[in-house]
Amino acid sequence: MALYLLMITCCYTEITRRWSEQELLDKLVLLPEKLRQEALRKRLWMDKQLAIAGKLLLVQLLNNAMPDAGLSLTDLKYTAFYRPYFDVGLDFNISHSGNMVICCGVLNQKIGIDIEHIKEIDLGDFTDFFTQNEWNNINQWPDRHEGFYYYWTRKEAAIKAIGTGFHTPLSSVDVSGERLNYEGNTYYFQPLSISKDFKCHIAATVNPVNVQLMRVNL
Known about the structure:
alpha+beta
């Protein structure tokens, strides 16, 4: 199904096992040399496979979004903040955590995506990354860890949609409301239900009333 204006398409996959050497080679050959080497520099096998899977999901997104544009991974360019983009109207973002990886895209808008595996952490280590409004909301959740990941995925998705990454201080972006107004743009949040063990949010400059979520087997 093609991706149209005001529709957000998301492709995701779950890494359930280590690929054989032949499977790894078969997938690596689908990537340009630069992306192939980036993946191979990953030390852990899971990190290698997540990196490769993210780029293959981007190929799937291109095939759905702009099948007649003739775009490929060799057309990727990078901003000064090393955010990848194409010289067309499609914006996209990739995120992975645990054994999950997701790639989302939208036409003629900006988008960020973040997925996080819910696990026990010391919330005190993150005090400086949230505003008081955000901490107030987190502390109202019956499970503060679940509340933390709810707002953390919102915050990271927003930072990625803005496009400056961690050059923008996390504490300067308040995601406690249903939308974020930042430097002249409005970003809307949309949670995605991937798995009970993960939290996931989209932040986009269009209210994503129409989100197509596709599981891809790699």
